[in-house]
Design a protein that fits this description.
10% of the residues lie in helices and 32% in strands. The chain is mainly beta.
Amino acid sequence: MQQSAVPELAHTHTRPIHWIATATAVACVVALSSVFQPGPATAAQAGPPPAPPAPVTAAAPATTDVDFPIECGPVKALVMKKASGDLDGDGRPETVAVVHCDAPMGTPPDGVYVLTRAAGTTAPRVVATLVDPKDRRTVTALSVHDGTVLADYLGYSSADVPSCCPDVKESAEWQWKDQAFVRSAQAGAHSV
């Protein structure tokens, strides 16, 4: 075995004094850390959180006493479904109504109409027809989500299909764009 050319250093062997010095140093750090505490955190305490925007307080237009553009002859027009929401982003809700004639028998076609109220008035008025009754559709579902009107309806594959028996199920969406309601691309119709 070859001897090292470097003489043994005194600090390479631990002695009780080294352990006492280390324990004293650790005790000093612990003692000083209890005296010198960091200040309270301030990043999340800059102030109260911002208030959420005020909810829209305007009521959606009612469907009563509205003259819907549907020809019903001697019977009256019935509102079968309705949904409300802000469709044009002006902060005031609109109402979307599914309307058909109160026919004594058969399946009368539905019309889908958008109602609004001009600022400063209380009378609702029809501003758009999304589904015309002449298209022979029966609306099965209607909703408004995030400014989009969603509707599911039954229809006919041809004029030869009797009114009693719709044979096509479709879905449609409309959004307010460039001062008009624009229908999204229609998904394929499905046979009933």
